[in-house]
Amino acid sequence: MVVMIEVIDPWGSCLVEDYACVVRDFGLEQFRASAFPKPNRIMRRGVVFAGRDLQRIAECIKNKKPFYALTGIMPSSEKIHLGTRLVVDNLKYFQEHGAKTFILVADLEAAAARGVPVAEARKRALEFHIPAYLALGLDYRKTAFYFQSENTTVIKLAFEASQKITLAEFKAAYGSAEPGRIMSAVTQIGDILYPQAEKPLPGIIPVGIDQEPHIRLTRDYLNSIKSSKRFVQVSSIYHKFTPSLDGSLKMSKSKPESCIELPEDPKVACKKIQRALTGARDTLEEHKRLGAIIEKDMVFELLKQHLVEDDNELKEIHDEYKSGRMSAGEIKQIACEKMTAFLKDFDAKLEDSRSLVKDLQFVS
Ligand code: TRP
Predict the structure, then answer these.
(1) In a domain, 121, yes or no
(2) What pTM does this model have?
């Protein structure tokens, strides 16, 4: 059965059941890894599934023309979901392919939409989120950071945008129109355009599909002021959610027992993997005969999205498991070992990155 939601709500926890449907309903472009040089792990595997105006960015990369990549940190909790790493993977890809890279801390949005005081959001970002993003592979020397609350250029761009957006447009994009959310959304437009404040520049915004309404609003705004030629239309790139280990589609804080967070004690992570929903058959005999149903298997999904970098290695695991030669116990063991190594490496890098915070470039 295909369940589709009418409006993707960036502040809710709506699930996306069918990504093909999302592509169609929102008029997105299907992502083609072959259009990009040296696609990363999640691009090659269809975890990155869609975008907008991707060709413009592929050409910037090919022709070595300047462009930017920008995303935002939402410090609404003191940890991040493993799935957040997918945003960083894409940001890192564009950084390595020449993008001027920006990361903002959405402290105003955290206050307006999530009830986190601005000072608390700032503290969390400096102590954890920014170091975590660096630990996941960004180059701090090539990344510019800012806080929404300190960036007057962003605020000015947001006010300009607010004059062109109607309440009806807002309701169509978000399903509702609460003042705090309107403020957050126009601020996000300011963020997305900030690298173009002085001159037009192609740019790409890597985000989860829940952020699509913000992208659409920004692009509609830019279409409405097209004649000014002040901005290049922005591109975006979307990845699927990392599913909860119980099989629901998005890792959720309301289900800590089946959601891997960063940081996380490897023992706890392995316990969660042990309890994960798999596509193994009811009995070992049946499993050997029929093999696993890979599409239903959350452990394989974890390996595919996060834990196995090498395509050949992944294919080998896939083939063994699908044929029934590998059992659920065995694939869980592999996932646990790889997860343990990943989490330990993350912890070590997080410590190193914390000492870098004082050397970061903050812009405004
Ligand atoms: N709304 C985003 C979130 O909830 C954070 C964010 C703010 C953002 N401004 C942005 C993301 C600009 C991408 C681009 O996570």
Answers:
(1) yes
(2) 0.94
Name residue, tokens 């890597």.
206
Q: Are residues 81 and 170 in the same domain?
A: yes
110 lines ligand 1 (CB under 6 A): no
Is 296 contained in some domain?
yes
Are residues 287 and 193 located together in one domain of the fold? no
C-alpha distances (whole Å) from 125 to each of 210, 295, 357 are 21, 36, 10
Q: Is the CB of 106 under 6 A from ligand 1?
A: yes
Residues 233-263 have pLDDT tens digits of: 999 999 999 988 998 765 555 677 889 999 9
Ligand 1 and 297: CB distance under 6 A: no
- Model confidence over 110-149: pLDDT tens digits? 999 999 999 999 999 999 999 999 999 999 999 999 999 9
Number of domains in the chain: 2
Range of 306's domain? 263-351
Instruction: Compute, in angstroms, the gap from residue 215 CA to the centroid of ligand 1.
Output: 10
Predicted confidence (pLDDT) per residue in 3-36, tens digit: 334 446 676 655 566 888 889 988 999 999 999 9
Cis peptide bond N-terminal to 39, omega within 30: no
Residue 259 contacts residue 253 (beta carbons within 8 Å)? yes
CATH number where 299 lies? 1.10.240.10
Q: What tokens were used for 361?
A: 């470039």
**Last-in-domain residue among 214, 244, 274:** 244
Instruction: Find the 73 Cα to ligand 1 centroid distance in Å.
Output: 6
Ligand 1 touching residue 157 (CB < 6 A): no
